[in-house]
Design brief:
alpha+beta, five-stranded antiparallel beta sheet, 14 helices, globular
Length: 655
């Protein structure tokens, strides 16, 4: 995917085909194959080993592929195996059937099931994860002092292997429980509330028992050592809890760990370096720390030294862990961008902030290809509404929203582009030895180089007042001078055409005397064919009008737009002009019933009830304020005791 898309589409898919054809043994579940004989390594299927192997294949093999690449045949392989792991679960509990009594398998499957639910939307995956969550949060954790152990007897409700190992093959349950808590928080909030005490007790107890003298989780808390290379994976659960619950001590635990980690510079084998580096990188994505980034860069240099000249690192499947971690580091240094086709001698790197990414690319020899930008993969690939830290993700550094606009500057030439074009890839040519700079910036208004016009003015005009003319500002967006024609739906502007310079608004006086109450529109149409702009002004004829409350009216009833207060209570600062006695006039909706709301103005609270008709009518509420004020907050919120009000308008007048 990152270095040879042709090989991915051909040989790598053939490997998947062969794996499915040769190893599948029980439904979709694979078993170990002896490559020297072409037969299964064991003559009879061992379901415990098969379930464990399939859970490892899903969590460590297929899940990161889906996180990076989205829905692929590898995702479908994982989906089929996850269903069969659940179906063949061997442990019956009062909360449902579990894949295993082992915290490792259950923790792995919690991660797989929760993310498959997001990826596919299939509630069966969430139901299976909830059953495991119930068994731990409601059963095992309360029975075991708040700590998960390695193997638990869910029939006798007692430990078989009471150890909790924070290293690899032991800590998966902590991350898995945090993931199912996050999934329930979004999709089954009542269940998350039911679990919350057990979840936080587990986290607090781990901190109480396992922090070493440097303040980082350890398997030897009495000293400074004992830190597992998977320390970062455990802290994912703490940061997830902070994101969901807002508990500052969990964030502080992560910050303390990122500070303490820099004291540990030797991790043994390459696989251990990879686990440590990945865990740190995932957390640094959420909480950047310069000193920890520098420490991480030093670790990577030591890690690279394990690779031989022929590319082999240690000569076992753990080499894939090192390769993936190095690719994660490359994605950090490039802001998630990639160039295709990959070729040695082509180099690129990026720097970014919230709005812009600037990339510098160069090549030893002429190169032509495509520049791809990253996307919010947690949302687009995994269907997650919360980008919580998780094992086997690929951190997102600078992502492009496919539905937003971007200004792309390449060596001084700017072009406006929708985000999906950047994700699909833009052409890039590199001449040998000539660096190219590309900057992509998200733009909120019309991007540089696109001429357009905008109009600004008051929200309303009251014909019963002293002024019937409104001043409208006309602005040129972009770098071009615009000549525009003005056309009103009512009233008369003091000119029908004008020239507008960029950066400097022009003003037109729009006289609305004689217009009918309702809405009037003034349109400015550029003569060069650029997009037009317009302003709508509400025309009222209300003696004593002090202010009009603006709010969205997304629904319609009896041919009138309205807002139901259950969907969005109304709150606005209204002008009172020094009046103590005011009248709040409400366009009150009813469907033959009595509707209720609470009106608050200037600290006074009034319960309102009105209705018994079908449609809308005006309800006038007199208010005597305690003191003379120029403005005050007005709110309208639901009230108990009956159906909630829905409103079409709110006016404030002198009384």
């Amino acid at each position: 995917y990152l270095s040879d898309e042709g090989w991915l589409a051909g040989t790598v898919r053939e490997i998947l085909d062969a794996e499915m054809r040769l190893t599948t043994r029980v439904d979709s579940l694979p078993d170990a194959l002896d490559l020297t004989t072409g037969a299964y390594a064991r003559s009879e299927p061992d379901m415990g080993r098969i379930l464990f192997g399939a859970s490892e294949y899903c969590k460590d093999g297929l899940l990161p592929i889906t996180e990076l690449m989205g829905r692929t045949p590898w995702t479908d392989r994982m989906r089929a195996m996850a269903r069969d792991i659940v179906a063949h679960g061997a442990v019956e509990t009062e909360w449902g059937r579990l894949p295993s009594g082992s915290a490792e398998v259950n923790g792995e499957m919690l991660q797989v099931l929760c993310r498959l639910h997001g990826n596919t939307g299939d509630p069966a995956f969430l139901d299976a994860a909830i059953a495991i969550g119930d068994a731990y949060f409601l059963g095992m954790l309360p029975a075991n002092g708040g700590i998960p152990c390695h193997v638990w007897d869910f029939g006798a409700m007692e430990p078989i292997n009471a150890t909790l190992n924070l290293s690899d093959h032991g800590s998966e349950i902590v991350g898995g429980l945090s993931e199912v808590f996050a999934a329930a928080w979004v999709h089954r909030h009542g269940k998350a509330t039911e679990w919350q005490r057990s979840f936080t007790t587990m986290l607090d107890t781990l901190l109480e028992r396992s922090l070493n003298q440097r303040g980082i989780l350890s398997m030897a808390p009495e000293g400074e050592g004992g830190v597992p290379d998977t320390w970062g994976y455990v802290y994912n659960a703490y940061y997830t809890a902070y994101m969901l619950l807002g508990v500052e001590r969990y964030r502080q635990a992560v910050l303390d760990a990122l500070e303490a980690a820099v004291h540990y510079t030797e991790w043994g084998g390459a696989d251990a370096y990879a686990d440590c580096e990945e865990g740190a990188l995932v957390l640094l994505n959420r909480e950047p720390r310069q000193a920890t980034f520098e420490w991480l860069e030093g670790l990577l240099e030591k890690h690279y030294a394990h690779q031989r000249e022929d590319g082999i690192i240690e000569g076992w499947y753990g080499d894939g862990n090192s390769a993936r971690t190095w690719l994660m580091w490359a994605m950090y240094n490039s802001g998630g961008t990639r160039l295709s086709p990959w070729r040695e001698g082509v180099r690129w790197g990026a720097a970014w902030d919230d709005q812009s990414l600037t990339l510098l690319a160069s090549a030893d020899d002429d190169w032509a290809g495509t520049l791809y930008f990253d996307r919010p993969r947690h949302r687009d690939h995994m269907g997650l509404t919360i980008n919580y830290p998780r094992l086997n993700e690929w951190p997102e550094w600078w992502t492009v929203d496919s539905g937003a606009l971007y200004s792309v500057d390449m060596n001084g030439r700017s072009q406006a582009m929708p985000g999906y074009r950047l994700i699909e890839g833009i052409p890039l040519d590199l001449a040998a030895g000539e660096p190219v700079t590309i900057t992509a910036t998200r733009v909120g208004a019309y991007p540089h180089g696109v001429p357009a016009v905008a109009l600004e003015g008051p929200r309303y005009v009251n014909l019963a007042g002293d002024e019937t003319t409104v001043a409208v500002r006309v602005l040129a967006l972009g770098d071009s001078t615009l000549s525009v024609d003005l056309s009103p739906s009512a009233g008369t502007p003091d000119r029908r055409g004008m020239t507008v310079e960029p950066g400097g608004p022009a003003t037109v006086e729009w006289d609305l005397a004689g217009a009918q109450p309702g809405r009037a529109r003034l349109v400015a149409t550029p003569r060069d064919g650029s997009p037009p702009g317009y302003i709508e002004v509400r025309v009222l004829d209300e003696p004593g009008l002090l202010d009009v409350v603006d709010f969205a009216r997304p629904e319609r009833y009896a041919d009138e737009p309205y807002l139901w207060l259950e969907d969005a209570p109304i709150a606005a600062e209204v002008r009172l002009g020094g009046s103590r006695q005011v009248l709040v006039r409400l366009r009150w909706g009813s469907k033959g019933d009595e509707r209720r709301a609470v009106l608050t103005l200037g600290g006074l609270e009034m319960e309102l009830a009105h209705g018994g008709y079908d449609g809308f009518e005006w309800l006038e509420v007199p208010v005597d304020l305690p003191e003379v004020v120029d403005s005050a907050e007005l709110t309208l919120t639901p009230a108990g005791g009956g159906p909630t009000a829905f409103l079409g308008d709110v006016l404030v007048l002198k009384r």
